[in-house]
Design a protein that fits this description.
2 copies of one chain form a homodimer. In chain A, helix 1 crosses helix 2 and helix 1 crosses helix 6. Chain A folds into 2 domains: 47 residues, Homeodomain-like (Arc Repressor Mutant, subunit A); 137 residues, Orthogonal Bundle (Tetracycline Repressor, domain 2). By secondary structure, chain A is mainly α. Chain A is built from 9 helices and no strands. Chains A and B meet through helix 5, helix 6, helix 8 and helix 9 of A and helix 5, helix 6, helix 8 and helix 9 of B. Chain A binds a DNA duplex through helix 3.
DNA sequence: GCGTAACCCTACGCACGAGTAGGTATGCTC
DNA sequence: GAGCATACCTACTCGTGCGTAGGGTTACGC
């Protein structure tokens, strides 16, 4: 009955693929702002300019929707890195480009990625989904280190490698968080700073220089 | 009317201070297992062997309860570190002892601390509480680095210091997460591995060795 | 031994938000 | 321009879980 006085002349009726992206955009935005539990499906639907049953019809339950967000953003991020890293580059060049790409991506998607990522860490249902992504990253980093080490004829245990990789990844995530909280900061410069910590340290390790705990009283300093 | 066939002969009626600790113990346990939202006040009360209104009477709302948990565990952790770090130690000794204490603490409180910490990062209401704690840690680390740098007559910007400190803290947290997920791992050995990454890198920085981005095509390598 | 304060309970109100039932309009095909 | 699939809506149900009302019981001072 009521004439629609919308700015868009005819009541838009969009194809599924388009609406799905709009919904995901809205979902990422709302999840970021409110957190997983704080976000309501009503608000997401509203923000996407659509009604709730549509969201259920296209993307499923709230949990599935969140996983879909995680998936899309995660894939985009991995892609952003893959786009700039060629396998024939030197180790430090690869690390440098990855950091640049990663922090650049986070800087450009402050609302999207980082907060989504922060969200997912706590929530049980997504821990799996998330650690899978994280594991892929850790493996890439560990592989990189290992390859370089092996090529220099040095031996390391699996565990050593894993811990170092975790440290590197954690450091980068932490810096990414810092970046999100400092909108004025430049991603590229931040990447340089990060590289200073990561590579300078890693290079030492690769060179075989390591730190040993000081001998305690009564212990022989073998 | 019903005779209480409890194992404890007389129906225990404990002083407030004791009950509060029991409640906090239960809360930490349940929050850790289920996450903030997943945990119900009923379950916490039940686990503490008390009824819900008691929890409200003593510790307040769910949010306040969680903050109380965060506070207690956070203080304990800071204390564990403060106990082993003397200000007259050398920088690397301080860092080493802090790492040992921190990872030792996390190792001993796998259920308690780390999961609680993971929880808090996502949830809006506690982001403040948490970043305050985190900031204190970052400041300590940054202060440590700055002091050492200054004592060698070198200058650094506030921001450089902050980013490096964030990276260090993030790396450590990440390794702590790894530790929680690997019950068989030895905290002490993990601390050594962590020290290898952190200190070897930091020592280079302190010595003035830094990494510079490679000049790109068309750019002058000033 | 009696008042009073602290400890402790059962049982509910109530809001909020996930998910759905059932129906309407619009474009597309032939 | 009839038929059909698909986009889309309003208006509900219903579970869950926070927080509380109101009342019972034990210790402790005097």
């Amino acid at each position: 009955m009521l004439a629609r006085v919308s700015s868009t002349p005819t009541f838009r009726r969009l194809p599924r693929a388009v609406r799905e992206q709009q919904m995901l955009d809205a979902a990422v935005k709302v999840f970021s702002r409110r957190g997983y539990h704080g976000a309501s499906m009503d608000e997401i639907a509203d923000d996407a300019g659509i009604s709730k049953p549509m969201v259920y019809a296209y993307l499923g339950t709230k949990e599935e929707l969140f996983v879909a967000c995680l998936h899309r953003e995660g894939t985009r991020m991995m892609q952003a890195i893959a786009d700039v890293v060629a396998p024939d580059l030197s180790a430090d060049e690869r690390l440098w480009r990855s950091l640049q790409a990663f922090l650049g991506f986070v800087g450009a998607h402050r609302d999207g990625w980082a907060v989504l990522y922060r969200q997912a860490r706590g929530e049980q249902p997504f821990a799996g989904e998330l650690t899978a992504l994280r594991r892929r990253i850790v493996e890439v980093v560990a592989g990189m280190l290992e390859h370089t080490l092996r090529s220099e004829g040095r031996e390391v245990t699996e565990t050593d490698l894993e811990v170092v990789a975790y440290a590197l990844v954690g450091a980068t995530e932490s810096v990414a968080d810092w970046l999100v909280d400092h909108p004025e900061a430049d991603p590229e410069q931040t990447a340089t700073r990060m590289m200073n910590v990561a590579w300078v340290g890693a290079a030492q390790l690769l060179a075989g220089i390591s730190w040993r705990p000081p001998a305690r009283r009564g212990e022989a300093s073998s």
